[in-house]
From TrEMBL:
Residues 598-791 form the Transketolase-like pyrimidine-binding domain. It is an enzyme of class 1 (oxidoreductase). It comes from Thiocapsa marina 5811. This is 2-oxoglutarate dehydrogenase E1 component. CDD domains: TPP_E1_OGDC_like. Keywords: Glycolysis, Oxidoreductase, Thiamine pyrophosphate. Its EC number is 1.2.4.2.
Amino acid sequence: MSAILELFRSSGALYGGNAAFIEDLYERYLKDPESVDLAWRERFHIMHQEAANEVAHGPVRENFLRLAQESRTRARTRSTERLEPAAAEKQAAVLSLINGYRYRGHQVANLDPIKLRDTPKIADLDPAFHNLAAEDMDQVFHTGSLYAPDRMPLRDIITMVEQIYCGTVGSEYMHITDTQEKRWIQKRLEGYRAIPELDTADRRWLLTLLTAAEGFEKYLHQRYVGQKRFSLEGSDALIPLLDELIQRAGRKGQKELVIGMAHRGRLSVLTNIFGKPPQDIFDEFEGRVQMDWRQMAGDVKYHMGFATDIDTPGGIVHLVLGFNPSHLEIINPVIEGSVRARQRRRHDRSGDQVLPVLIHGDAAFAGQGVVMETLQLSQTRSYATGGTVHIVINNQIGFTTSNPLDTRSTLYCTDVAKMVQAPVFHVNGDDPESVIFVTRMALDFRNQFHKDVIIDLVCYRRLGHNEADEPAVTQPMMYKKIRRHPTPRAVYADRLVSDGLVSKDEADAMVADYRDSIEQGVVVARPVLCGLDHAYRVDWGFCRSTAWDQSVDTGVPVEKLRELSDAMLRVPDGFELHPRVEKLWEERRKMAQGDQLLNWGFAENLAYATLLDAGTPVRLSGQDAGRGTFFHRHAKIHDQVTGNAYTPLQHIGEHQGAFIAIDSLLSEEAVLAYEYGFATAEPNALTLWEAQFGDFANGAQVVIDQFISSAGTKWGLCCGLVMLLPHGLEGQGAEHSSARLERFLQLCAEHNLQVCVPTTPAQMYHLLRRQIVRDYRKPLIVMTPKSLLRHRLAVSALDELTSGHFQTVIPEIDPIDPAQTERVVFCCGKVYFDLLEARRARGLTNVAIIRIEQLYPFPKDYFDRALEPYAATEEIVWCQEEPQNQGAWDQIKHRFHNLMQDGKRPYYVGRPSSAAPAVGHRAAHVEQQERLIDEALTGHFNPSMNKRIPPQ
């Protein structure tokens, strides 16, 4: 044993404070030598060679434990030693200075490659601020919790903390309240002195990757002069960062990395990391893309996604790059949702197998609210993905014309991440070795604590916002510095030449070799594995049909419905329901037996139950999804004594699909995008998002515009997401009335969406089942009711659920004689019941009312069939309760073209055009509603002028 101890003591590695650390390293070395950094690996190897005959592993472990215990004993002894007041004050000052570096050393760290701004003066880092003078520099002090020898001269302490906290890595972690996390980071930073341990091969590979990053951009710049590519130049270290992240993740046993990023550097990442053939990129620049423009609109090359498989020391890693529009950070929650679906498919509850990686721009990370919303999701039960590695490409400027002082109010662009106590590691992009060190630490932190972590890659942008831009017009001082500054590859090549690791000729040969490869169009990334068949691959092949109107029976036998109803209505022994819920439960029992007509909430839950029983997972989220905003769903109930929640739909069968009802945080944009991402990665689940009120979807309009409505035609992505949007004018003011039906209809084209307005519980039941039973996946937009949830006429019989399908058009239901009909009123939604009750109250027998339940894709055949009996009827009316410039009218009136051929014109009846969706006073609402119902049923029309004449 003495030889081993002498080996460590002579190297200066073993002292009391380091014993526990060395013990931990030794245990890791025994399990996997590759898990220990090179220097320690060599030490342990030498130790075993020199002391092979002296001791076995067990005594070595025991000795390390003994040393650690001795260290703790000495520390306790020292803590009880009495110091003179002056000495105690000096000792306290030293510890305060150390903490000053931990808290604020990052502010003076060497992070900016181009030295854009002067280094600030930080008082906390000045020994004089702590009453430490020049004569104290050689005084030996206790180092406290510093990962260092127990006692050191002050001069050496300062040198050490400056190296750790003020070099090319600036660390922010002292805001974290969890002591274990904080100590873990301190151990990594201070134990390794914030210096990576790379062997010669690693450093040469780093130069190879930087050569690829620079060579790719230079080649494109010369070959496609002036064309937009949003180059990575100045931020080249992203390529070795991602390479290290992928390889290390694979070594740690992770199987998938799902990456989201905006357009900056995307082409380089696709080529140099994902292995997209350069020739494919060139073809996109030159317009030689194999695509049927009649089937797909396509997108610009720097928005496109990609998937590939890369070999790593731990096995194959599947890489996915998400498709992303120009709305920058909106990809964040989409990726998180996709990752959650992939983790669910792998039964990866902790996030050890699927890793989300998000690459941000500095100004976008600071400025776009969806970043905060996504961070807020990160530790919630139903949205957590085990932690995300965030990489900020910090060009120190937003748009070319931005003044960096105007892009945020915070010190750093990454400060928003502190709200979830994520550590932030700033690193100089011109020091790729420090970039590797930070990457390793960030990934290991994420995997250890399953929390988000931020890498702030501080760099610059050599060109403007795009290649046609001239940045010096608005940023003259910045670009004078940039144009005098050598490239990251040149900086690192000079460093390796100086260290004698490569010759200048070898470095130049790397440049020539890369250019030769890329000119030949061959893959220049790590070897890409092709033709692999993954057990967890997302297969959308079965549901790419565009036959939206295919007939499919969505009924379920009554015996099965009653069986499922019994299961849904069971509660645990002793579970005390709220009296109102107890009454509702009794009503549902009667509905299940056919003694009472079904209401909306019960029919909806039955739809979920039937799908779950068939093995289909159901994921429902929204701000009040479990109970339902309007007290109708009650998919989740609460014990009135204990407060414990119980979800009956999770207990309907032994082999059922998973059900989750999520009462989400008050976010629309991030939550809807998350559910969209989940739905795109899970074709066999019913994924639903419910707005608290339909118009709250306004807060997620970018998700609707850029993903839900257009991703299919831009990128060929399938998605079966369901949006439930409560809609209906009921005197609740402008903000609680309209789900903006007209906006969704404006987005409809090429069978991209399904927009439906069901009016009965049975219709809702069949509509939800159709979404899964049918081999067809397109987003479904449902205008759901509010007052109709308990309307006496909006009910269905149990046998309506046992057969049939969703009716896109519902013909007249009363015994109205077509031969005696003088007017046909078409409508959708809640206004139907107002019309029906008024017609019945007035005893009118000459007006037929037809409901259109699916507005897009428009059911022309069913529409014609419903209208056919009334061929002789002259007056055709479209009635809606929304203002004329809103609702369905402007988007549906051209559907009446067959009527126009006969010289007929459809008449509009409804509210006049309005800037607001509804009036703010109930009395005004009631007056307007009564008037439009009266006009629709009995108003006079002048066919020659195609105008209605209000009744006298």
